[in-house]
Amino acid sequence: MDLKFKKVSFHENELLFGRDATPYITAVEFDGKNVMEIFYRQKNNVVSKKEAFKPFILLEDTVYLDGWDGTYEAKRLKGDAYYKYLVFLETWADLQLVLKHFKKKTGASPASMGAPFYYLNDPVHQYLLCSGQTLFKEMLFGDLVRLQLDIETYCAEGYEFSNPHRVEDRITLISLSDSSGWEHVISGREYEEKEMLEVMVEQINLRDPDVIEGHNIFNFDLTYIEARARRYKVPLAIGRNKQTIKSHSSRLNIAERTISYKKFEVYGRHIVDTYLLAQMYDVTARNLESYGLKNVARHFNVASQDRTYLEPDKLSWYYDNKPEELLKYGLDDVRETRAISEILSQSFYYQARIFPYSFQNTIIRGNATKINSLFIREYINSGNSIPRTSQSREYSGGYTDMFLQGVINRVLYCDVQSLYPSIMLTFKYFPKVDELNIFHSLLSDLKDFRLKAKEKMLTAKAKSEKMYYDALQSTFKVLINSFYGYLGFAYGHFSDFDEANKVTAKGREIIKSMIEWLEVNDCKVIEIDTDGIFFVPPDRVTKKKDEDEIINKLSSALPEGINLELAGRYKAMFSYKIKNYVLLDYDDKIIIKGSGLRSRGLELFQRRFMEEMFLYLLKGEGEKMDDLLDKYEKELVDRKWDKKMFIKKETLKESLAIYSEKVSKKKRSAAAAYELALKSERKYQPGDQISYYVIGDKSRVRVFDNCKLASQWNSEEPDENVEYYKKKLNTLYEKFKPFF
Length: 740
Prior knowledge:
Structural class: alpha+beta
Number of strands: 26
CATH superfamily of the largest domain: Ribonuclease H-like superfamily/Ribonuclease H
Radius of gyration: 28 Å
Number of helices: 22
CATH class of the largest domain: Alpha Beta
CATH topology of the largest domain: Nucleotidyltransferase, domain 5
Distance between the termini: 54 Å
CATH architecture of the largest domain: 2-Layer Sandwich
Number of domains: 4
Strand order of the largest sheet: 17-19-20-18-21-22-23
């Protein structure tokens, strides 16, 4: 399956895919000196070959090499951009030595903005940049051998959490599966823990996967396995060529959150953490209640009807008393991990064909960083000098506004297709420093290929073919919409803040012209959301064809190249605040948008209450609100709820040491999640989540002094604070009462 455009095959586009079309590469690994090992999949086998590798650094002037007596080759690049020399070293060790030399000479470190040298600290990335190769060419996602891994662990009596450094807290179950449907469980009822680890290593090497997947595999499964293997001196030789696993502390930014995690690397293979993928997905979707495996599986409808659910704090009991239930539970975990990865990792798989990174690093690199790599690759390939990064500065954002508040019926939503990319292409807002015009070419090609992929998806007969083109077009959409962000990317060598300002200014101008047209044509505008408008059509519009006609007329009034589509039809809309609204579709399903209405800071009972309340509100049944409040209060007083209804889940954003220091210096208030983490003997770190609930009998309590971990709640002796939670219900009720 492939796309053809302008008589050029999709994968022959060298700007996107690199100039080397070598197929079937599944991994590239560095030997630590001057050799890269390239792994290729050939049907059911994997072969490899070794290639010479010389690391490089970009340099403003060779004068900085004066006084360094190592061997190097300096190539003068064309043009007068800042980095004029491409300098190759003999080994990676030489590169580290020359960096020390530069620091002595210039005072700048590799991380310094505007340093006279530019260093990339990933040797595989360097190799792929220079070679023009990328992974997975001529392969489908289904060609990858993907193995799923999940473990269950014991928790000694008297403790709340398993601890890999506590003798008794052994691994009780290792569940394995792969993309062929193969499944295997290694039970502690059959093996000593040391033997379990040895069998796991043996099975992974026998299956020889390209990818190892797990849910929270970095911060839990592999971290735990590593600690227990160290206890028994079992070498975790699960890499190709029997290489042992490596790990180091790392950080990852997902939207506004920084996640600390232990990054593991397996020679010749990639590790995919679906826990991280779920968080990346939710940056734009914002519809996951939590990132736990079971919740994510239910969200994507991949949990089987007979799925085994066990309480996390009862897993040790099941191991001791009902081990067969634990086995079912573990297998369901790996099955769900496999299904979630098939949904969430495919876009990154296709990105790995484009970007010069390993599959694992393609997932964790930001979109702007990845786009920057395409510029670097092409400029190095063509022998052109490269600009330094721009000085970061503020630039104006998109236009948002709200004109009507409350419940509105008969709502349409029109959306400008890829507003900012369309503006850049139509009005030629491109980086001035891009002498090779890469930005324009890449954006134009991606837009054309996405349209072609969408056409192929609609006409595809086979399900596998439809999924292939859908994954492609989704990948292209993400990249297309990232080009505007790249213009304002502080670490981009070809970013341009002046052009970014022009793009948003033109966007505001176009949206305002749309508002004027709608108002002149008897439409009522409700809300503007950067690239789309919610509005009420005139009373004369009663049929779908009438709605389409309005959109077509409005579209024809826009500049050429700016295309509009009818993106939504709704029975009613509750407009609350800017970017906070609720929609009721014609199947009577509600869609809640905005952090003010769908905050994860709300307990489940509040979210459920709001969903029912909004449904009544949008259906014009406000008189049912009092009965709804009475129902929830009675259930609460009668203690009818399971703990999931009122537990609160919070993510630790800073270390416990930093938190304690800030509290002691009165630089921040005490918080329940941190106080519970401090009392626990578990080693928490930023990015970890704490689930807790509030205890007591008064509506006003200091939560950090009146809380317990969710695992401490006992259904036989419930002790949740009824008055506290009743007050929360009433606060919500009063908040939205004016709209009934």
